Amino acid sequence: MVELKLFVEEVKEFVRADPLLIARPGETDLLWCFNEPSVLDKFVATSDSDHNEGYSTCSFDMSPAGRARFHGCLDVRVPKDGRIKKAGYCAVRSKRARKSFKRKTTYDWHLYNTLVLKVRGDGRSYLLNISCEGYYDITWNDIYHYVLYTRGGPYWQIAKIPFSKFILGSKGRIQDKQNRMRFDRVTHFGITCADKINGPFNLEIEYIGLEFDPTHDEEFAYEMYKTDKYIVGV
């Protein structure tokens, strides 16, 4: 019944045919506003201990202030199994966007050029991750990263990060050949704590949104060099 209702809403939206054609400058359009517990169900929290690859633990729940809280304890000890070489990560990631009847879809962010977060941190550095849909399986591990620096203390901060600053990585390694992300093929958004510092961490999130900044005309922040294909893959 729930899937049928979603399908009816999709049909109504298609008939209205009223897509958003322009993003108003300086206005933040919210993706997720963490003002009620039901929004937390759209995310999944994982750590290395969930895969028997470490001892870190984490949770994603509501804070006493009524906002989302990504918290836990980071542990960089490496299990003595002769297989794991590095340990110490906790992450929260959005679930795959889906239409009715569990059909996969993607987020379309092509109207925007800036990611906006309102957070209250603990002084640690967190890694922001954006995944895009890839056609070949070799690209399924490609993720665009940027570091979120937080202030300790009781005050909230608004972080605005241009998409041009995100850098391409695969399985945690920065790639030699960089390219811009596909803004119309975004599948996941996540936050990772893996700064190699033992101890508890705590990050409160009020909202995650998008903004169009007309003063930012940079397409890609990193200078690229032409290289032979046998040196850097296509």
From TrEMBL:
Primary location: mitochondrion
Keywords: Chaperone, Mitochondrion
Subcellular location(s) of the protein: Mitochondrion
Keyword Mitochondrion annotated: yes
Residue intervals of the NADH:ubiquinone oxidoreductase intermediate-associated protein domain: 33-205
A Pfam family of this chain: CIA30
Top-level division of the source organism's lineage: Eukaryota
PANTHER family in UniProt: COMPLEX I INTERMEDIATE-ASSOCIATED PROTEIN 30, COMPLEX I INTERMEDIATE-ASSOCIATED PROTEIN 30, MITOCHONDRIAL
UniProt similarity note: Belongs to the CIA30 family.
Descriptive protein name: NADH:ubiquinone oxidoreductase intermediate-associated protein 30 domain-containing protein
Organism: Iphiclides podalirius
